[in-house]
């Protein structure tokens, strides 16, 4: 009678952490969140710029036009 030795197998679980790279836009840098993403307030001059959440052209245009130096520094 021979008893088999208990073999404990360890499985290595590797967890892959997903890193989401969200590009910083002019909106993220110079604007604070307004009402439900439909508008945002410029932190440089306090002006409220309206624009859609996914469209950042309005915001970047404001910074480029009103705050040219800051806009160039951000790029
Ligand atoms: Zn501004």
From TrEMBL:
InterPro entries: Znf_BED (IPR003656). Residues 36-67 form the BED-type domain. It holds the Pfam family zf-BED. Keywords: Metal-binding, Zinc, Zinc-finger. It comes from the Eukaryota. GO terms for molecular function: DNA binding; zinc ion binding. This is BED-type domain-containing protein. It comes from Didymodactylos carnosus.
